[in-house]
Model the fold of this input.
Amino acid sequence: MVVPMTFADMFRFNAQVMGFGAGGWMEQILNSFGDIVTNASDSLRLHEECDLLSLRLDKVSKGQAPNLSQFKSCMLASLRSLLPKEWDTQYEVAWNWLWDNVAQLLVKTLGASYAWEVAVNRFFASLVEDTRYQLRASIYDRFFDSTPAGQEYFKQSDTRLHFIVEKVFTFSMEIYAEPWQMIDDLSALGLRHVGYGVPTEMFAPFVCACVDVIRGATDDAVAVLGFKWSLGIVSKQLVRTVAEGSTIVMKAVNANSKKMLQRAISCAPRGQRFQWLLKVQVGTQSISPLYWAIQSGNLAAAEAIIQDLLVFRADRERYYYGNDALFERHQDIINCLCREAPMLIPTLLDGLMWRSARTEKGLRRVNYYVKHLLVNQEGEPAEFLREICTTKDPKIMVHPVVVTVSDTLWNGLVRNHFLLSRLWFLVSLVVFMLSQAILPKEPALEGIFSVRVAVFFGRSLMYAVTMTRLFLRCMWKSGKDCRKGKVFYIFRCFPMPKYLHNAMALGNLALAVLLMLMCAYEPMYVCLMSDPQDWPTYDCDGIEDVRWTYSALGLLAMAVHWFLMVDLAVFSTGLSAFVLVCAQVLSEIGRFLVALIFLLLTFGSAISVLEHPYFEMRDIPNTVLCLFSITILLYEDDYRTLMEEPALLTAVLLFVLASSILLMNLLIAQLNSSYVYIYQDMVGFARLNRAQKIVEALANFNRQHFSTFINSIGLDQPLEFNQGDVGVAGGLQLTEPASEHVVLKDSILRFGGSCSMELEWPEESKSREDKDQISKVESLAKKVLRKVQLMERVQHGGLEQMLHVTRPHLFNGSWMRDVATHQQLLGQALKYVPGPEVCLRIFNLLHPPKTFPSTQGDECAIMSYYDGGHKQAWSGAEEFHLGPEDEGIAYGRRVELLKAIREQRQQLDMKDEQLEEHKRKLEHFQEELARCLDPDEAKILRSRLAHANAQITEQAEEIDDKRSQVRVLEGQVSVLSSHLKQEAEKNTQLIAEQCALRRQLEAEYALRGEQKSWQDCFEQEQQKAATLQLRLEAQVKEAAQKQLAAETAKQKLQGQVQELQELAKIGQEAMDFKAKAEKLAAELQVAHTMQSRLQGELDAVKQQSGSLQAALDEANRQSAKLSVAEHKAATAEQQVQQLGSRLQIAEKKAAEVPVLERQLQEKQQEMESQARGYGYCRSKDSTTYIHVAQRGGFLGIAVWRTRNGASYTPAIRLWASSCR
Done:
């Protein structure tokens, strides 16, 4: 038998021994007992745990009230058994006190949840939708009235707000039905509220608003009480979850601040730093700060968490690296980043590699910690490459970590498997070519019998093996996708397996179909049935009908077979990149073909309508074919044959212009643009293709073979950082050229001091600043490199445009010849030069072109021809003379000035020519006008023109007058408007004064009414005071008589107090006897236990020899002692009972002492007040006291009302002066 060593096991054992049974309601208390004991000092949490426990007990007991004393007995027995040496009376008293309090809390609500659940469900079931809508709206109105700040946290739409309240109603009902599941759901909901940053102060007003609205909507008090109790449990659970989950890390994540996160995590113990960043546990639920930052869009905080996790920290004893903690907590971190934050993938990958700052023989050591990217925790291939391929980002595919993972799997595992899977395809292609394209096409081999037999077997092998293999593979893959529901739709109507969405899979299916059709039209099979004497042969009389069909099918099958061989380009990254580039530009060719077909149909149909004698363009098909031949330069006729038909020639020339000139050049431009775009990421696309092949191969790979490969690469072996410095395991160590990456400083953060895991890391501010500076320098270097690449393209473009011939100073630096200081550089050489040209000059000076286009000696003449035609190219400063005052100008500046003068003169000459041209045109127009008109008509026209000009002048003057009048009116309007504004301001002031006077008048009326009401009240109270004074005088006389009786009672009370003191001493002795009795009871319990153990030993001894008789005698002596102890215990119990009865009598008398003392004090007060002129009056129910005093001609009346006869609370205090 195994001895129980834990409290839970010992409790279950004792429950079985005592006959209480295991499970049921006891098991529920046992499950919650740890939380109860842990939170015994927190009264609110203890109440919460007891409420939940009572609800669970009601669900388990099913109406039968549990006997809580049974749990107490098992609990104490278990604790005594587990702590036999430490257990004493203090433990006994403490655990009894704890359980008594718990039982008292449980009894309050135990059994009440049944009625509450029925009432709450009945109430909500009786509500119609309109009523529920009004209740939800009323809750928010009540909540916003009581807590206006809550409006800042409920800014969603109205439907969302109503959904929240409806969930509150649901929680209040479901907490009764499924309390276990609801607690887990509420914990998860509370953790989400931690991320939302909702303050816990808002929960209580919201719950009060809900309860108040429900109370006003129903008269069922049980339903209101049940709703209030269940909603209270829900709110307490949410508040506690939010309070416990609101760590400083979560607050920093919600603020999306890197600095706050670094400060928050800096106080974490180094052994728990990763736990702080990855897990916040509350009850049975947990939340990840990293995942919450990613899902909520706080990517700055998420990046800081990833960087902090993947930084190497070290003391003298161990290394700290969060790679394992990250992937153990979040196995799907790559999937999460690919879906929600792809920009964080480079940050994660950068943290998975370490580069040494030292180099050896021109090589640098690099550690890639890729264990979790290769294999998951179950030993199966990780989903890293699959998820990375879904991003289809070529830049990520060339990351060193991705390249390492891909190359490791390809070179060590997938390459040979892929080659073997394609080996049969290669053999099939060779057999297909021999049997279709080589042996049957050689005339010298037609008569050889063995050749014909080889052709027959080759073709039969293709049909029997290749075709069958392709069909079976396609059916298996398609069926697998259909079972998993992986389909895509063609034209949104026809579902197809996702396997056929791949071009290679579709090519395999097409090849299988073509082989099946070739088998149906196979000539050798036809000859076997028609002419079996000469068989095997593929040339007989019966194949004339199928010869061409079979050859066409063979052409297509051969083309598809060779197309499928493109898949083997994956072995070479460069070749694969070229194939991908070709595939990418095919889309541009497709667009070109669509446009060309449109033009062919347009012009073909248009030309066929035209009446012409040209036979080659007699109808639409022939016209389209003829135009297409013209486009691809295969048309043999000349355009001169169309000279007799101008309309036809014009249509053909327009088609050539649109197709050969426009479309062809546009296609070239598009292909060039696409190639430039794809070429930048060509290697990334090639690696993406290889990664997809690796993923497909790993999906069908043998798991045992994969495990062997993983064990062979030694991922469990620690890797060295530098020689003799053994680091952490889980990676691969490679070397790279030292010049490939610049490493200025070791990335491992090393710290001295204590190596305790309980201490936090020292301050990292300096190292963080250094790291920030290095990152800034690296980012600046990257920006400079991008600018240099841009300027190199600009420089190359300038060379292509022959600027080194037309503007040589941009490239040869001649403008810097006489520059000696920066003042000369900025004040003379570059003062009048545009900014872009300054950049180009300086860049060409610092980074001159490596090569120049080859010169022929006539570049100046060529450029001048294209610039001006008949003008000569300017070659220097020989045309202009510089005076002595210009001798201080630099040579480069001279050249620029002379060129500027030349350009200005050219512009002036052009303007002079334009002016002369305009003069000539004017004279020509005047001559034409004089020639076309008679002198008399010209005079009439001139007079009319003068009259019209005079009318126009008069109208212009009238318009000016009107405008002046309008300006005057506008001025008047502005003056009037200003006066109107002033009057409005005065009216506003008068209205404000009127309102103020009205408020003063109202206040005066209110004050007068108040004074009148107070006067009436004073008169009434004065009458009441007179009546009370008469009553008090009578009571004062009675008080004098009672004073004598009080003195007598006081003497009696003093005697009783002495007796009670004696009884208290007796009670103390009784307590001592009781303690002794408990001690004897404990000894009795120990004796019973010893007796049972000895009895067991005695039974065992009886089965053995009689040599153990001494032990039996000892047992008898112990039994005798036990009987004596039982007698003493019985005597002690009788004494305890007698003392208990006497103690009860003493307690009753002690309870009468405060009453007597209070009566005595009242008598003394009455006597003292009578002596000072005070009077008291008490009502019959002893709850109202009236105090009357008269001093110096003033009468004071005070009325007190007591609560439960215990305390005096002032209810009304009125003082009034009496008339003198």
